[in-house]
Amino acid sequence: MALPEPLQTELSGRADALVETLLDLLAVDTSNPPGETGALADAVEARFDRLGVETERVVADPAKPNLLATIPGDGPRTLLYNGHLDTVPYDERAWERDPLGERDGDRVYGRGATDMKGPLAAMLEAAAVYAETGTTPPVTLQFALVSDEEVAGDPGLPAVLDAGRLDADWCVIGETTCGGERRSVTVADKGSVWLTLEATGSGAHGSRPILGDNAIDRLYRAVETIRSRFGTEPFDLDPAVAAIVEESVSYYEPTMGETAARDLFTRPTISLGTLSGGESVNSVPVSARAELDVRLTAGVQTPDVLARLRDCVADCEGIEIADVSWSVGTYEPLDSPLVSSVTETVADATGDRVFRRSATGGGDAKKLRNAGVPTVEFALGTDTAHAADEYTTVDALRGNALIYAALPYRLAGDGDSPRQER
Known about the structure:
- It is a single chain.
- By secondary structure, the chain is of the alpha/beta class.
- α2 (15-26) packs across α4 and α10 crosses α12.
- A 6-stranded mixed β-sheet has the order 1-2-6-3-7-14, sandwiched between helices. Strands 10-11-9-12 form a 4-stranded antiparallel β-sheet.
- The protein has 2 domains: 5-188 and 331-414, Aminopeptidase; 191-233 and 268-327, Alpha-Beta Plaits.
- The protein has 12 helices and 15 strands.
- It is elongated.
- One of its GO terms (molecular function) is metal ion binding.
- Keywords: Hydrolase, Metal-binding.
């Protein structure tokens, strides 16, 4: 690995310390909602203080603080490690293990063990090794530990970006991107269109439906029209995105089959999320409402698709768009210094192929790329995020710590190209 031997040796012997750090993080319940992360931010800040690492808080909601920490480096560039302090909620009755932390052999259980307090523990241990050995990293290391990620809340990363406190050249988000023996780095996310459709009709008795216009029927026909017009139409993808799609298909093929994996990225996905309407079983409904989730591969221009969706809805009798929100997918080129450096570092550490793939949704990576910070997601872990008895492994913790500590050296050698403008 690119990591100097003394640091690598030090980290390799810190398995128990990694587990203890993770158990400390898991012991603080940061379920969101309500998403109160103050106690955990206090504990992490105290860790950095003991290491002599400078910290700063960015607070838009006192219950949901964001913590920044900086370790100055030799070079002029900055690598940002980003993670979130909050977790999804848990139902203790569904757990056989302690949702606030329990170790059993090579496994560490708890809500957030893999999403993403496990990767956070690895980041903290990587920082500790630099500080405790007096090693100056080759690039400045910044840590942004944010709140409210699980509900995409404004008090989290958006507040940090709005405050102008991040000026990184690269970012790695510690979201778990590897399950089982398959390794991947997430280099892209999808764009989205969320449509709320409303239908109006005319009422009639359920025994004489021909005398009315059924709003639910109208609404469902509109949904099927949208699916037939857009759901089968392939994207015209830029070659750089097409290359990401090919690796994404290869990554997902074992779990969903080649055809489904390819359709997931080469065509829009259209999901009918909610449908409501009508007042009684024996009445023809006069109103109905549906919410559609449309996802678009990075590189597809969401405003153009939205304009066509509006035209399509305008052709459907009795249908109007009541609300809409949208985003544009983002990506990192496969030959960028960040993607190359992370991929090579992970491959060196694991000895496995590393897929450079798109996510099927979008999150904080999109926010950072849109702010001009090249960003990928990576962490070793398990496929148990958000599940009962969520867990990670000691091997995953150790591997993440080694990779996060080694990456600055790889980037210092490979990251000489100018920052990409977004």
